Amino acid sequence: xxxxxxxxxxxxxxxxxxxxxxxxxxxxxxxxxxxxxxxxxxxxxxxxxxxxxxxxxxxxxxxxxxxxxxxxxxxxxxxxxxxxxxxxxxxxxxxxxxxxxxxxxxxxxxxxxxxxxxxxxxxxxxxxxxxxxxxxxxxxxxxxxxxxxxxxxxxxxxxxxxxxxxxxxxxxxxxxxxxxxxxxxxxxxxxxxxxxxxxxxxxxxxxxxxxxxxxxxxxxxxxxxxxxxxxxxxxxxxxxxxxxxxxxxxxxxxxxxxxxxxxxxxxxxxxxxxxxxxxxxxxxxxxxxxxxxxxxxxxxxxxxxxxxxxxxxxxxxxxxxxxxxxxxxxxxxx
Length: 334
Prior knowledge:
Layout: E1 8-9, H1 10-22, H2 27-33, E2 47-48, H3 50-64, H4 80-88, H5 94-108, E3 112-119, E4 122-129, H6 139-156, E5 162-166, E6 186-187, E7 193-198, H7 210-219, H8 222-225, H9 233-244, H10 253-259, H11 264-273, H12 278-294, H13 301-307, H14 313-324, H15 328-333
Parallel strand pairs: 5-6
Antiparallel strand pairs: 1-2, 3-4, 4-7, 5-7
Helix pairs in contact: 1-3, 2-3, 9-12, 10-11, 13-14
């Protein structure tokens, strides 16, 4: 399918709203401007599209004039990232780009300290927040650690395969969402926030240009939130098979197992080991597809139900309410 099978937990909206409220920004109006219904904010199962969330965070940056969302010891004026990126594009390799990022932010942002070190075959990109207690929900740390991975990956034109990522805080309740953000094993309660990568990446050349950077900045931060989910091996294979199934009905567990050259029993066991199941994956993909379709008012609910393989709209309504806490019509009104 051509749509983006990805949605974002309302948890991240809630943390962003709290950050805006702490800075005396009208978060309710910002949500409305971003195409969200503030009345649905308290539903823990609710999910939003990457487009909605990117609009909200962009409004927060602009209205707070702070790319650190009021969660750092000092503000970071809106436009600082763009300025850094316009200089980083002139670097010759990933190593020089990462050193540039560390020098740039260490010079102008008192709220954090960045460093790049090489130890044996590994390279460490570390971040320490000056006042981590101000980032109570870890929203700033989560956003920046994602950015330190995705922007350099874009610079060299390939996804940097991380070996590990470290966080200084305990595992949060929403850690299941991290598989949509971080492509590697995660360690918590560490002395520093760290990206661990193979040092070979440091020699990769910067392939982007000033022209491609302009398009990148114009689409940011949306391009940060639309990346493919980082799934384990068999989960990823099943997701790919399901995404090719236009009607969500023509493929079952046995057919996918045959396509992957394993027995259905083996596939079921592998998915269990990866802490998921065939039905969970199918429901997750249909849920995100439904959220995408419902954000387009020109597609009737009955048509969405048919596209997602439900026998009737009533069955789709029951499933969507179970997934998100609200019926499709209510979600669409938001």
